Amino acid sequence: MRTVDKTPLKISILDAWQIVVHYIADDHAAKFSGRAKETLVFRRLRKEIGATTSALRITGPDSQERFGDWSIDLVCDSENEKIAVEGKFKVQTDGAVPDNRKAAFFDLYKLEAYVDSGEYSAGLFVWLTDEPGYLVPASGDSRDFSTHRGRVYDAGMPLHAHRSRGPMPLPLILKRRYEFEWRSVGATKRWHYLVIAVEGKARNGEPISS
After folding, report:
1. Nearest CA among 192, 68, 208, 172 for reference residue 132
2. Is the Cβ–Cβ distance between 207 and 121 less than 8 Å?
3. Distance between CA atoms of 9 and 80, rounded to whole angstroms?
4. b vs e for 34-67, b when ≥16 Cβ sit within 10 Å of the residue's Cβ?
5. What is the pLDDT along the chain (210 residues), one digit of tens a residue?
């Protein structure tokens, strides 16, 4: 199992994400509903990060930082680190599982672009869902974009599909290796969450170490 390289800011974000996923899974999901439910989740994440971290500038989710044509869900900026966070909060009533699989990989694609630009020291992709379809192997047009438990994506592997819901390059090719290590959360084990790190460099140009 691959561990995420830990830096002070990354630890703060990951600790806050743990608080958020446990809160939602422990019978508070109804507070995060409707068309703006992902924004509500990121508002809660921002609140939890801000409560534990001083000397930090947080941008998003309501007024988002731009990177070219894209808006970043959340950006956490400290003296030595600047971390971009993209994420998904998907529930069973959403449907559109094949499109959402592709959108998740596109988030990783965007995070790689942020980090490789040198403007961001790292990226984090976070996901919380109660939809079991994301944890099992995909078929049909989203087969290459499967997010199933234990999926390993090897750098440079082309991901093919006939269509996507939004504009994204097809085939999609990522530059790093990723593992989909889903973890259950909550008393009922109905909810599952995922964290994938996109590693970069510190602002002094040196690789970030654990």
Report:
1. 192
2. no
3. 9
4. eeebbbbbbbbbbebbeeebeeeebbbbeebbeb
5. 445 567 889 999 999 999 999 999 999 999 999 999 999 999 999 999 999 877 899 999 999 999 999 999 999 999 889 999 999 999 999 999 999 999 999 999 999 999 999 999 999 999 999 999 999 999 999 999 999 999 999 999 999 999 998 899 999 999 999 999 999 999 888 999 999 999 975 444 444 433
